[in-house]
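Appendix C: a fully annotated inverse folding record. The material below is reproduced so that readers can follow the format used throughout the book. The structure is listed first as tokens, followed by the designed sequence.
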């Protein structure tokens, strides 16, 4: 999520308004039926994959991606998160293909025709369609996984039984799950995001099939959107933190209940490190580093996407919890907040107004204007969050990782001390945290990374995408030419934006050899990347972005 292109493409390329003249002026509240005959296909919201861009490599595949403002190229709509509506769709597909949508009901009729209905009002960006060679398997009482046939066994194994556990905890914390089913669709490797919280049917990257259930925090994140984002929605993309900051908070509340505080603090520390990296790269006072972003007319909201609404947003919600000072009281507030604004689109003023109304004693104390922590400052001043939640319970997992990274950064390696640390029992986020520390200390003294690679095949030969990303970054930062092929292999295996852009940035900022590697890898993989990701990579490599 660090796509910050220098200049924004003119937003006009995202379509023009459809003006409809009515035979006579309608009355307020009158119901109109409008029939629009249109064709869509080439727009940015509809992605057509050739067989080689899929996991199975046999049949083509299509999917839509609406967030933020791309569904206008899929069907005529009020393409703003401030408007919510129900929908239904009839989709006829060729023999040998299946259609699925983000809908509460799904029915297959004759002639390969599928009928969908969404009975709850949602904003336009949450309508999604996939057509492909896909099959499903049940993994819980209200959940199934969808994937290409070659991935379905792995998907079932990784997620059997876990989804329901997260849903039950979510309902206990935030109130009823209103969407009926919660299914997960594993997308082809070129899908540019970790997950997209389409209601009833979350789309996720196949990178989550790590084989060890280690990346389920992404699923917990998407499940949390069932309350924050999908049920209570930001009315404008300039206040995206209302979707993402609350969802990060909710995700970490569920994670704390399921996995405990130390592990959750460790995961939050890796999130904080991403925010630090982002702010160092852009400069703290960059206008995107505020929670309330001014999106000028003509700017594509997608071009404002970055870590701030997620991690600074999380800090602000944590600050509100800190003001309340009692976790169960704040949990009760969140439940009341969801109940108050469900099926609505709201602004930060609505959220903060409700917070002060719910806690009159805090309003009395003037907590919205404590010097240095004013709500207005949180929203409108760029930079590092004024308040950081205490992540010290994660220290028991972080300290060993920090100490081990120190050992590896030494001029002469103390192999005795290094061998005394057994990383085999470490969980993925502990390894990620260790690698983040190594990356910060890179380049390491000559030869150290080579030894590290040899000593920990669990890391240097990992199949887990989060570990692979960090290992590739370390390889590049240390000019470990012997392992450049791993960078190439990783970029060939998937096209997720959060993994792809940082590696191209690292290659482009490195040596002649890494720049050549970047060009070679991009020319080989460009056709399998999402068009937005292609354009962002072109900007990094100084190639003219295609219109």
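Designed amino acids, in order:
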């Amino acid at each position: 999520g660090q796509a910050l292109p220098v200049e924004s493409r003119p937003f006009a390329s995202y379509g023009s308004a459809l003006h409809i003249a009515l035979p006579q002026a309608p009355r307020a509240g009158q119901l109109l039926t409008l029939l629009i005959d249109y064709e869509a296909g080439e727009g940015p919201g509809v992605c057509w994959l050739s067989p080689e861009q899929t996991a199975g490599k046999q049949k083509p595949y299509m999917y839509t991606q609406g967030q933020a403002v791309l569904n206008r190229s899929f069907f005529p709509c009020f393409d703003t998160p401030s408007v919510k509506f129900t929908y239904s769709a009839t989709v006829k597909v060729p023999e040998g293909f299946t259609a699925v949508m983000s809908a509460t009901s799904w029915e297959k009729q004759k002639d390969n025709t599928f009928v969908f209905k969404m009975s709850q009002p949602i904003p336009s960006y949450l309508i999604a369609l996939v057509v492909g060679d896909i099959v499903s398997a049940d993994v819980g009482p209200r959940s199934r996984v969808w994937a290409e046939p070659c991935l379905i066994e792995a998907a079932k194994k990784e997620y059997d039984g876990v989804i329901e556990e997260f849903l039950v905890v979510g309902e206990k914390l935030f109130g009823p799950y209103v969407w009926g089913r919660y299914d997960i669709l594993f997308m082809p490797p070129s899908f540019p995001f970790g997950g997209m919280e389409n209601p009833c049917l979350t789309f996720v990257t196949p990178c989550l099939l790590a084989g060890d259930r280690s990346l389920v925090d992404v699923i917990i994140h998407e499940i949390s959107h069932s309350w924050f984002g999908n049920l209570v929605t930001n009315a404008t993309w300039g206040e995206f933190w209302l979707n993402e900051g609350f969802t990060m908070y909710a995700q970490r509340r569920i994670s704390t209940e399921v996995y405990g505080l130390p592990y959750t603090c460790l995961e939050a520390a890796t999130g904080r490190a991403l925010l630090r990296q982002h702010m160092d790269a852009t400069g703290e006072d960059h206008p995107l580093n505020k929670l309330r972003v001014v999106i000028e007319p003509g700017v594509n909201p997608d071009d404002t996407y970055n870590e701030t609404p997620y991690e600074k947003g999380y800090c602000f919600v944590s600050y509100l919890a800190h003001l309340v000072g009692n976790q169960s009281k704040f949990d009760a507030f969140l439940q009341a907040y969801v109940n108050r604004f469900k099926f609505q689109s709201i602004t930060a003023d609505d959220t903060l107004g409700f917070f002060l109304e719910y806690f009159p004693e805090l309003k009395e104390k003037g907590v919205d204007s404590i010097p240095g922590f004013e709500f207005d400052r949180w929203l409108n001043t760029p930079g590092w969050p004024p308040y950081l939640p205490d992540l010290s319970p994660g220290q028991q997992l972080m300290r060993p990782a920090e100490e081990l990274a120190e050992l590896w950064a030494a001029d002469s390696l103390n192999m005795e001390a290094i061998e005394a640390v057994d990383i085999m029992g470490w969980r993925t986020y502990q390894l990620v945290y260790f690698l983040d520390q190594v990356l910060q200390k890179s380049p390491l003294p000559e030869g150290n990374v080579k030894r590290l690679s040899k000593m920990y095949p669990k890391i240097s030969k990992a199949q887990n995408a989060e570990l692979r990303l960090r290992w590739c970054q370390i390889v590049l930062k240390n000019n470990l030419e012997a392992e450049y092929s791993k960078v190439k292999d990783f970029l060939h295996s998937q096209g997720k934006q959060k993994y792809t852009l940082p590696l191209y940035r690292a290659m482009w900022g490195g040596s002649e050899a890494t720049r050549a590697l970047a060009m070679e890898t991009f020319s080989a993989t460009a056709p399998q990347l999402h068009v937005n990701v292609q354009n962002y990579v072109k900007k990094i490599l100084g190639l003219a972005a295609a219109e």
